[in-house]
Amino acid sequence: MDADTNNDDQIDIGINSSSSSKLVLYSYWQSSCSWRVRFALKLKGLIYEYKAVDLSKGEQFSPEFEELNPLHFVPVLVDGDVVVSDSYAILLYLEEKYPQRALLPAADPQQRALNLQAASIISSSMQPLHMLSLLKYIEDKFGPDERLLWVQTHIEKGFLALEKLLIDFAAKYATGEDVPLTNL
Amino acid sequence: MLFSYPQKKKKVKKKILYVMSFLIYWFPEFEELNPLHFVPVLVDGDVVVSDSYAILLYLEEKYPQRALLPAADPQQRALNLQAASIISSSMQPLHMLSLLKYIEDKFGPDERLLWVQTHIEKGFLALEKLLIDFAAKYATGEDVYMADVFLAPQIAVVTMRFNIDMSKFPTLLRIYESYKGLPEFLASSPERQPDAAR
């Protein structure tokens, strides 16, 4: 089943549903972490089954999903018997198992390291500090003004670091002319 | 060359060129190395790598001896990457000292304490669930891998710094006992670093 044919369908997250697709991606349409993996799958030309997890309805807390990911986060990738959660781990898994259209530049170790760093800045120093569950905690406790200030502070700090990191290397894309891991 | 601060908790592989430690990380020279002003930063000849996750992956590729990611089993490999990522993305950024200072300055010490306990316990609970079916002597089996490299310092630092009750996480606690006997873990501990406070 091609992901493009079911963009309009919200599929139940029943993990026991039969499917002929080898790859299954549990994703929320608005999640930036899920988007990274979707982007990578498209670049690598991989067909996958899309299983929607509606975070706004709390579907990530269902017992079935908890079994897939005890942190209740999307995305989660299921590849046959292998279950991988966390977008960074998924991307590295995909890069190793499906090496076509490499996301980490093979020849240049500095460019390779740069991609890993930029990806890590985003996944560790930015996204965890502006994910919606955390912002809700902050807003509930400290009010909307603090929420706004928090978001601006941490996002700008992260983007400033990325700007400095990439300024000498970026060409058409983040670290050169091809679309590597950083861009995801 | 590895730039580090002794409290910084990421263990590194043995084969590093040599170690220099700086307590102060806001020198202009350091900003050039890492615009986020974080340690660690590894310099390997012409290559400069900041961010512990990126450094460990760089080391794993360039110095494949004593692999930190199990080669044969993709699930175990993925598990290690996930556990490492849970710690580096969902735990450490939420309890790093600069962030806690921001929270304490704005909202007070009680909120700081509650924040720390909430996020650390959430992360450890997730790790407990993730690893419970796979852990043996170490996090994902009988050998030390990437998950352990992240988990060992994480447990050591948060128990010392924030007084977290690890008895709620019996799998993690049991694994931690194994780490305490590892010479490489002990040799890389904060107290044994050149810049450790006397």
Automatic annotation (TrEMBL), chain A:
<dbReference type="InterPro" id="IPR040079">
    <property type="entry name" value="Glutathione_S-Trfase"/>
</dbReference>
<dbReference type="GO" id="GO:0016034">
    <property type="term" value="F:maleylacetoacetate isomerase activity"/>
</dbReference>
<keyword id="KW-0808">Transferase</keyword>
<comment type="similarity">
    <text>Belongs to the GST superfamily. Zeta family.</text>
</comment>
<dbReference type="InterPro" id="IPR034333">
    <property type="entry name" value="GST_Zeta_N"/>
</dbReference>
<dbReference type="InterPro" id="IPR036249">
    <property type="entry name" value="Thioredoxin-like_sf"/>
</dbReference>
<feature type="domain" description="GST N-terminal">
    <location>
        <begin position="21"/>
        <end position="102"/>
    </location>
</feature>
<dbReference type="InterPro" id="IPR036282">
    <property type="entry name" value="Glutathione-S-Trfase_C_sf"/>
</dbReference>
<dbReference type="Pfam" id="PF13409">
    <property type="entry name" value="GST_N_2"/>
</dbReference>
<feature type="domain" description="GST C-terminal">
    <location>
        <begin position="108"/>
        <end position="184"/>
    </location>
</feature>
<dbReference type="InterPro" id="IPR010987">
    <property type="entry name" value="Glutathione-S-Trfase_C-like"/>
</dbReference>
<dbReference type="GO" id="GO:0006559">
    <property type="term" value="P:L-phenylalanine catabolic process"/>
</dbReference>
<dbReference type="GO" id="GO:0005737">
    <property type="term" value="C:cytoplasm"/>
</dbReference>
<protein>
    <recommendedName>
        <fullName>glutathione transferase</fullName>
        <ecNumber>2.5.1.18</ecNumber>
    </recommendedName>
</protein>
<dbReference type="GO" id="GO:0006749">
    <property type="term" value="P:glutathione metabolic process"/>
</dbReference>
<dbReference type="InterPro" id="IPR004045">
    <property type="entry name" value="Glutathione_S-Trfase_N"/>
</dbReference>
<dbReference type="InterPro" id="IPR005955">
    <property type="entry name" value="GST_Zeta"/>
</dbReference>
<dbReference type="GO" id="GO:0004364">
    <property type="term" value="F:glutathione transferase activity"/>
</dbReference>
UniProtKB/TrEMBL annotation, chain B:
<dbReference type="GO" id="GO:0006749">
    <property type="term" value="P:glutathione metabolic process"/>
</dbReference>
<dbReference type="Pfam" id="PF13417">
    <property type="entry name" value="GST_N_3"/>
</dbReference>
<dbReference type="GO" id="GO:0016034">
    <property type="term" value="F:maleylacetoacetate isomerase activity"/>
</dbReference>
<dbReference type="InterPro" id="IPR034330">
    <property type="entry name" value="GST_Zeta_C"/>
</dbReference>
<dbReference type="InterPro" id="IPR040079">
    <property type="entry name" value="Glutathione_S-Trfase"/>
</dbReference>
<dbReference type="GO" id="GO:0004364">
    <property type="term" value="F:glutathione transferase activity"/>
</dbReference>
<comment type="similarity">
    <text>Belongs to the GST superfamily. Zeta family.</text>
</comment>
<feature type="domain" description="GST C-terminal">
    <location>
        <begin position="73"/>
        <end position="198"/>
    </location>
</feature>
<dbReference type="InterPro" id="IPR010987">
    <property type="entry name" value="Glutathione-S-Trfase_C-like"/>
</dbReference>
<dbReference type="InterPro" id="IPR036282">
    <property type="entry name" value="Glutathione-S-Trfase_C_sf"/>
</dbReference>
<feature type="domain" description="GST N-terminal">
    <location>
        <begin position="1"/>
        <end position="67"/>
    </location>
</feature>
<dbReference type="InterPro" id="IPR004045">
    <property type="entry name" value="Glutathione_S-Trfase_N"/>
</dbReference>
<protein>
    <recommendedName>
        <fullName>Glutathione transferase</fullName>
    </recommendedName>
</protein>
<dbReference type="InterPro" id="IPR036249">
    <property type="entry name" value="Thioredoxin-like_sf"/>
</dbReference>
<dbReference type="GO" id="GO:0006559">
    <property type="term" value="P:L-phenylalanine catabolic process"/>
</dbReference>
